[in-house]
Amino acid sequence: MLCARGAVCVVARNECLSARGWIKRPPLAPPPGAWRHAMVYDESRGVVVLFGVRSAEPGETWEFDGTAWRQVETPVSPPGRTGQAMAYDAARHLVVLFGGSTATEFLADTWEYDGTTWTEVATPVSPPARDYHAMAYDAARRAVVLFGGWTGNADRVLHDDTWVFDGAAWSEVRPPTAPSPRSGHGMVYDWARGRVLLFGGHDERMDFADTWLFDGSTWSRLPTPTAPRARHGHGMAYDAAREVVVVFSAGDWGYDDTWELAGTTWTQAAPAVSPPGDGQHLMAYDSARQVVVLLGGSNVDGYWAADTWEYDGTTWAKTLPQAAPAARGGSAIVYDSARAVSVLFGGSAGHEFDSTWEYDGHRWMGIPLETTPGARVCHAMAYDAARGVTVLNGGRNITTWEYDGTTWIERPPGWLETGPRRDKHAMAYDSARSVVVLFGGYPTGGAVDADTWEYRSGSWFQATPRVSPPDRTEHAMVYDSIRGVVVLFGGYGAYADSTVRGDTWEYDGTTWTEVTTSVAPPPRCRHTMAFDSARGVTVLFGGARTPQGFVEDLLDDTWEYDGIAWTEIQSRETPPAQQSPTMTFDSGRGVVVLFGGSGATALGDTWEYVGP
């Protein structure tokens, strides 16, 4: 599909938008790190459904079709919560949700999801409020079965009650025997036996390793000669094609073992690769593709993962769905004009990333590579069009690398004696002279610098311009290919003079020249810039008024510089105020692409900008 020049093409809606300004791309990211969410497989629509949220915000609904995660905007949604349970009612083709908790209360509400909207179900009787319980759909008896959980009120009740939901009402079943009170257990429907199966969980004293069956009226303990280690918060799913129950990980966080139950025997599987040993992750069986899908989890450091894995009965494989990079700030992005993709690397969101992503204007693609430059933040990148490589330098890991679209290659270590070793600097590619230009930043073991370096054919050379800007860091720099000059704006100086700057400079390959304009963006640091070669203007967005970057100091303004004057641009919609986003110009489509940044939290949005 072709779009008129200057229009933003949104493939997901099969339309071209002639509106100019900022446009937020449809969310294609995987859900944020899953934390006590709930996940089931909707057989009628062939998608995995996830619901949950980590705060008091409205609940989020996500779906995964084996290729892409997408967030579903529903007209009605359950309030945000954690620790809820869900099951898929195959007879009525509905996802059923019960309970969970917020920061202030435990919940006892019942909801149903039909793939379009959520509907609250008013029942005359329901289980008491709780979270960390488990549910499974009993296909033989056409009812959802609920067991256990806990209510952390003043009484701290740990439940051992059994309830069934037939689509209209909840009713309590009082079997003569039942599993002991517990939470954090797993439950699935065992099609081979026609019964609901329960494994594990814990009370306030210990974890469990027992296995139970429920036939609709009675619980019976299943004798097993072997069993996984006692655990709770594990992932559990029933693989209908192989007629086995699959359990993965959890316990004291750090297990990475996979177990299968066939008949009465638990057997530890031995896949060559496994997901990290996390807890609180989610699992569901995709019957159409005959794989177990695993999402997220937490580790001992409290990091909530957003990875998606699949298990085919032999191997765990990390999937790279049509997604987006995780939220982050301090990454770097450039446009590879030879391959018509934007390349993003690194960044940080409490931990640093070492992943490579590419964006073709329609979707983000994670690039699996055996070798990467290593996790880093506050590095700089530029695209060397003459050689067809992305050049990366510095960051908290101070090496120089090149990426040709297939492989990252570290430049020979001999450059370390003469090349720049720093972070929080800026780089731009001078296409007229076929050199990457670097200015400023924090040298390793030194103070903020004001030096200029040039990189050509794999080697760094220090330039000696007659005039230079004052020393600075966390500035932004682009190459104006129409006028043949590098444009620099903003940043802040050394600690002795940490003034945030609002000056504009140009570098022609020989000298730096300060440009005085009647109007200019307010002084700032940690902003981002890109050169729109189709319109011949430098585009600037965001940043912080102070080096400390407090939330109240963040900016959301957009400016353009044509070599003579700066002009502030008003847009009907704009990215949120932020610092350390990354931006590049996609010359193939004629749009500026912005990703990530840090506001009150790390951001993972993708925006596109077409100037007036």
What report would you give on this structure?
With 612 residues, this protein is mainly β. Helices cover 0% and strands 42% of the residues. It is built from no helices and 54 strands. A four-stranded antiparallel β-sheet has the order 3-54-53-52, with no helix packed on it. Strands 4-5-6-7 form a four-stranded antiparallel β-sheet, with no helix packed on it. A four-stranded antiparallel β-sheet has the order 8-9-10-11, with no helix packed on it. A hairpin with a 4-residue loop joins β4 and β5.
Q: Cα-atom Rg, whole angstroms?
A: 28 Å
| Average residue-wise pLDDT | 88
Structural shape? elongated
In angstroms, what separates the terminal alpha carbons? 23 Å
- Residue windows where pLDDT falls under 50 for at least 5 positions: 1-18, 299-303
DSSP helical segment count:
0
Q: Helical residue percent? A: under 10%
| Oligomeric status | single chain
The strand order across the widest sheet is: 3-54-53-52
Number of strands: 54
**Share of residues in strands:** 35-45%
**Structural class by helix and strand composition:** mainly beta
Largest sheet: 4 strands, antiparallel
